[in-house]
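Hi L.,

You mentioned the student needs an example of a multi-chain input paired with its predicted structure. This one should do, with 573 residues in total across all chains.
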Amino acid sequence: MMRRYFKGYEPGYHFWTAYLFILPALAIYGVFVFWPILQTVRYSLFEWNGLDTPQFVGFSNYVDLYHDEIFRVAFQNNLTFILFYTAFPIIIALFLTAILTRRKIFGLTFFRAGLFLPYVMSMVVVGVVWRWIYNPIFGPLNEFLEMVGLESWKRAWLGDFDLALPAVGVIGTWVQYGFCLVLFIAGVQRIEEELYDAAKIDGANEFRQLWHITLPALRSEIAVAMVTTLISALRVFDLVYVTTRGLPGNKTMVVSFHLYQNAFEQHKVGYAASIAVTLTSVILFISFLIIQWRKRVEENV
Amino acid sequence: MFKMKRIPTYMLLMFFLLIAIIPFVIIVFTAFKTNREIIRGVFDMPEVWQFTNFEEAWNQAHFNQYFRSSIIVVIPVMITSTFLSLLTGCAFGRMNFPFKQALFFIFLVGIMVPQEAYIIPLYYQMDKLGLLDTYWALILPQIGMSVCFGTFWMQGFFAAVPRDLVDASKVDGCTMWGALWRVMLPIVWPGVLTMLVLFFIWTWNDFLLALVLVTKEELRTLPLGLAFFQGRHSMDTPLLAAGATLVSLPSILIYVVFQRYFIRGVTGGAVK
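Structure written out for the whole complex:
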C-alpha cells in the first residue's frame, strides 16, 4: 500500500514547490552539519594548530595515527565495549524474551516504561550516578558488598587498572539491555500464533520453537539492536568524559575522547580530524555490513 | 489471566526492572539527605525530607541558569525542526521532483554519522561566523541533525496518507501548502508527537555541542552544568544528587507522559 502512494505523482503542483519545501531544512543541515562533515576530511590532510596557516601534509596524519599507541589502546577499548554494549545486552534481552515469549504480560506497559528509563536519561546523569555507585569510600556498591558479607570484594572500581574498563562497560550494558528487550518484545508480538501451534503439533519443544520460530522472526530487530548498540559502543564519549576521563593510565581511553583531547586540548586539529574520519568510516562500514546482512536474510525469508 | 506458575517469570522481569531503576531511586533519596546521613547508610530512607539541597543546587550552584539555557535551546529546536520536518516529509512523501533520491540520501547521511564526524570544523566555522558562545551555536546544528531524522520519519507518514483525501482537497482549491496543514497534518499527527518527544530528549541530553561550542558559564545547558559541577564538588554527594535529579526531572516527566510515542519512535524509527 505504502509503496504505491510513495511512487505516485501528486498532480497539480510544480516541482519547485517541493524544492521550496526542502530548502530551509537543507540550508540549515547543509551549513551546520553536512558541510562540516566534508570539511573534516579536508582538515585531516593538514597539520594545523588552530591559529597559524594550515600545512598540507597529505596522508601523514593517518600514518601517525597508525603508530599512535594511545589510539591503538583506545580503539581496542572501544572493541571491548562492543562486548558490553552489544553482546551482553542482546544476550540478556534474548534470554528474557525467550522466557516471556507469547505470554500475555500482565502490566507490560509498566515494565516497558521502567526498563527503558536508562535510555532516556542524559549520559551525564548516568555517569554521575554510576561514579557515585562505584565510589570506593561511600559508594553504594562497596556498602552493599559489606552488607552481604563480601567485604573482601570491595574495590576502588574506577581507579583499578584491571577493573576500570569493565566497570565502565557494565554501565553500557545497563543502559542498553532495556532498549534491546523492548525492541524484541515488540517483535515477538508480531509473530503469528499459528506458527507455534503448528510446531507443537509437530512435537517441537520450547527450545526448538525458540530456535526455529522466535529467533528467525526477530532477525530484523536483532539487526537494529546490533547497529544502534554497536554505534553507541564505538562512539562512547559523554560517559567516559564524566566517569574516568580515560584514566587510570589510558585504561579507559576511547577513540572519541582521544579525538576531543587532540582537537580541543592539545590543538592538533588536523590529527584529530584524521581520528574523526577513521571513526566515522568504521561506524559507516559496520552499519553497512549489518544492513546488508539484514537485507540478505530478509530476502531469504 | 494471572497464573501461579508464571510467578518466576514475573520475578525475573521484576529483577531486571529493579536493576534499571534502582540507581535513580537512590539518587533521588540521596538528594533529600544530609552529608552525615549518607556516610551512615546509603540505603536508608532520609530522616527528614528536606529540600535544602535542591534550593542550594538551584540558587548557589547555578542550576537555575543552566535550566534557563536548556529551555532557551530546546524550545526553538523542537518548534523549528518539527516545522521543517513537516515540509521535507511532505515533499519526500508526496511529491516527485528531479534529484529526489540524491537529496534524500544527503539527509540520510546526517542520521548515520556521529557528531564526532563534524564537531571539529563546526567549531572553527562557528568561530568565523561569530556564533561561538551564543545560543545559536547550540540551536542551529541541533536543528540540522534533527531535520535529518524528521525527514526520514515524516516521509513515511506522509506517504501513507490516503490519496483520495488529498485529491478531494485539491478539488476544493487547496494548494499543496494548504493540503499539508489542513488535510494531512491531522492524519500524520501521531508521528509528529513521537518526533517532538525524540527532539526534546536528544536536545535536552546533548553534551558534545555544548561542551565544545560554549565556554561562558551562563550559557551552559544542564548536562554540561552538571558535568562541571561534579568536577568541582565530587565530595558533596547530596548536592550532586539534587543536581542530577533536576537535570533528569523534565525528561522523566515528558517520558512518562509520552512514553508510548517515545518507544514507538525509538523502536519503530530504527526498524524501518
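You could point out the following to them. The first strand of chain A starts at residue 46 and ends at 47. Confidence is low (pLDDT under 50) at residues 1-9 of chain A.

Best wishes,
N.
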